[in-house]
Sugar transport protein MST4-like (Cucurbita maxima), 510 residues
Amino acid sequence: MPMAGFPVATSSVEFETKITPVVIISCLMAATGGLMFGYDIGVSGGVTSMPSFLKEFFPTVYDKTQELQEDDSNYCKYDNQGLQLFTSSLYLAALTATFFASYTTRVLGRKKTMLIAGIFFIFGTMLNASAVNLPMLIFGRISLGCGVGFANQAVPLFLSEIAPTRIRGALNILFQFDVTVGILFANLINYGTSKIEGGWGWRLSLALAGVPAGLLTSGAILVDDTPNSLIERGYLEQGKSVLKKIRGTDNVEAEYYEIVEASRISHEVKHPFRNLLMRQNRPPLVISVMMQIFQQLTGINAIMFYAPVLFNTLGFGNDASLYSSVITGAVNVLSTLVSIYSVDKLGRRMLLIEAGLQMFVSQMIIGVVLGMKLKDNSNHLSHGMAILVVLMVCTFVSSFAWSWGPLGWLIPSEIFPLETRSAGQSVTVCVNMMFTFVIAQSFLSMLCHMQYAIFLFFSGWVLVMSAFVMFLVPETKGVPIEEMTDKVWRQHWFWKRFMNDEAGGRRISL
């Protein structure tokens, strides 16, 4: 597909854009992939605290929760590899699926990749809700994990490419906002279904995942693919037509030619994964990989996966633990709204650095309180100390929700050039799922052996990641997605040494 004939220069062109209803509706539909992801995160922690679920699939854990022996630590009553596999299998499957998703995103487009994700979600929901044994339950989680791999590959790219530059951050964070809404819905549903008599409430919790799965599938059918994806696959006129529709103007020549030129360059790259390792692509690769590792080492999944289990472990009881999880879920949603409002005003770096301080302080307080009050394995906190722990958990969740949660997905989705964007997003999702799997599979064992020190462990990593942001993560607020090389990497005190003459100079002169 020849795309030559467009002169190349380094001058910057301001694109004429409007915030059109098409953009808003398309982004809302695409972001339902986050709703499904969040629901999967929240529902697993809730059902694993339900006695009826444990009795049917994990009887040894059920027995431990019913009657602790005198020499047993309250921290260890949920320490079971099978129980952890129920949660973590989703992320292991997502890790594998993302490599296939990279291919479909590039060859079939963002739209069809989201549709594939929706189909996996629906199938996995059916398996989980009707499970009669542990293998069936695990296979359902694996199918959901494949959906996560495809959705997390396609949705952030879709949102970044379709959004006008000045509100790209806010629209992209819709994905993370829907993640938090999904977690909150899961916590509310778990709280309600845990009270259903007959012990089948967990099935309803798992079955209701079909609602966000259906929303994503129908949304993927209705939306147009991004102009970047259409042009990259050779549909130039269709891409230009969609660009006019989403920008609300016929004056799209500047942006259209820039996308065409970026697409021409991307077609010269025969091995995008290999090209990621080239010197000029190392800055976005390193930042994307480290942000995924750091996002998990904040300890957020340790809290959100197992919030009901965690509060139960602290002696809150089943109802209180689920209720406390609903509170943290609501804080998560409201705090993500802060990020949507401020990310394109304050910038990415300020949110990350402020949140680092807040997360460090709150986790240190949690670790110290638990260390002082639960040394004797008394299994209970005083009422005042229990409230303090919940407040500090909410403080931690709020800071994560307006920083590392949404920005961990936003920044990688906007810093790769088009020729390596799908491959870069694939590596981003893969690393995220790998470390999510590690945390999910090991947290309960870590809680058993490290006890209160687990929170001190995570708080130490928060200091490391805050220093990383301060020195090595550049500001990308307001920078057009195809101009990152010239306006970000070439201007950064450290990363500019990785840029060569071939890495820039791709702007279109009109």
